[in-house]
Amino acid sequence: MELIATCAFGLEKIVYDEIKKLGLWVIKTEDGRVTFEGDESALVKANLWLRCADRILIKVGEFHAETFDELFDQTTDFEWENAITKNDVFPVDATSVKSALHSEPAIQSIVKKAIVTRLQKQYKTEILPENSGATYQIIVKANKDQFLLAIDSSGDSLHKRGYRTKANQAPMKETLAAALVKLSDWTPDRPLYDTFCGSGTIGIEAALIAKNIAPGLKREFTFHSWPWIDKALIEECYQEAKKSIRTDVKLNINCSELDPETTKIAESNAKNAGCGEIKFQTSDFRSLDFSKFENSTFISNPPYGERLDERSSVEKMYRQFGEKFQQSNNCSLFLITSNENFPYLFGRPADKNRKLFNGNIRCYLFMYS
Ligand SMILES: C[S@@+](CC[C@H](N)C(=O)[O-])C[C@H]1O[C@@H](n2cnc3c(N)ncnc32)[C@H](O)[C@@H]1O
């Protein structure tokens, strides 16, 4: 079958690499999604192991449609009965971009009607109670009149690893934090610092990568309720993931944060994630002695000052951060912010920068190697 890993714009190449690392065959990479070939085992492993993807979908089909009749007819052509039995639940969720059919509720109801019509005919029944059985969330994505129909196998988005039971005010998605670590020069033998750690996501994701802990190990996915996926296969994939955890890695990950309550949250999240060895402290970065830091990697997501009244204090903070960072020895910095003037305020042009989205906020990852 064809599987699709969806992801935030800008993370496609990282997700592509992660899929290749699982030994799977990538068919194509497009904006926000990577399509790959795989069986049931690939479906389970992709959900369990991909750190930077949002969801794993099973592709049902693709077609061009500009009218509701075309959408209905082409949707009924697919063999929905191969996945959905007469008692299953199948909600439909649609998004539409730059398409003649732009009303998402209308697309949802036409696709639903088409699937119901197909199943009623196949099962020779008028009644599809949808009150028991497994759930098959149907995803419809229309882009420039090209429709993708798929079934979601993940349920909650993959950034919900299960370790972050509490979060601070502006937590970063775990998938983006993992991507920052992968885009940085950090290797587990190098000290890592996050001096604006919030709920600790960057440090925790780095530790999970270093210890080879599968990001999905602490949670379940929608596919767990699907009868056609062998329970023994699922168990085997989880057991294999548990066996591949590296217990021999010595970590030097240091997270600090201004707010004491937030530091406590971060510490508890790290313990939940099985990364209790991360060091946390409550401190203003301005009070840290940066001359002690050497040959280390800094990865941070400081406040952005999105609100107009916060902007000047955040810009002042970026200047102060630049002055402090100058005192460190041979350290690299990977900092994400929506403020495009960061290099000017920090006092040095970045060696590279990369556009990324933190939720809906367009950001830059400034890289100082
Ligand atoms: C955008 S949040 C970081 C979110 C974090 N990446 C996460 O996933 O939870 C920025 C954090 O910087 C902290 N902060 C603000 N000013 C600081 C300062 N002067 N020194 C250290 N931390 C500071 C805030 O308390 C906040 O938790």
Description:
It is a single chain. The protein has 369 residues and is an alpha/beta fold. The protein has two domains: 151 residues, VC0802-like (2-Layer Sandwich), CATH 3.30.2130.30; 167 residues, Rossmann fold. Helix content is 32%, strand content 22%. The protein is built from ten helices and 14 strands. It is elongated and about 75 Å long. The two termini are 41 Å apart. The site of S-adenosylmethionine (SAM) has 20 residues, from helix 6. The site of S-adenosylmethionine has 20 residues, from helix 6.
- Total strands: 14
Q: Spans with pLDDT under 50 lasting ≥5 residues?
A: none
Domain module count: 2
Kindly name the structural category: alpha/beta
CATH class of the largest domain: Alpha Beta
Chemical compounds bound to the protein: S-adenosylmethionine
How is the main sheet built?
7 strands, mixed
Query: What is the 3D form?
Result: elongated
Topology of this protein?
Elements: E1 2-6, H1 12-21, E2 25-30, E3 33-37, H2 40-49, E4 55-64, H3 68-76, E5 92-97, H4 104-123, E6 137-143, E7 146-152, H5 174-183, E8 192-194, H6 201-210, H7 231-243, E9 253-257, H8 260-272, E10 279-282, E11 297-300, H9 308-326, E12 332-337, H10 342-346, E13 352-358, E14 361-368
Parallel strand pairs: 5-6, 8-9, 8-11, 9-10, 11-12
Antiparallel strand pairs: 1-3, 1-4, 2-3, 4-7, 6-7, 12-14, 13-14
S-adenosylmethionine binds next to α6.
In brief, what are we looking at here?
This protein is an alpha/beta fold.
List keywords for this structure.
369 residues, alpha/beta, VC0802-like, Rossmann fold, 2 domains, seven-stranded mixed sheet, 14 strands, binds S-adenosylmethionine
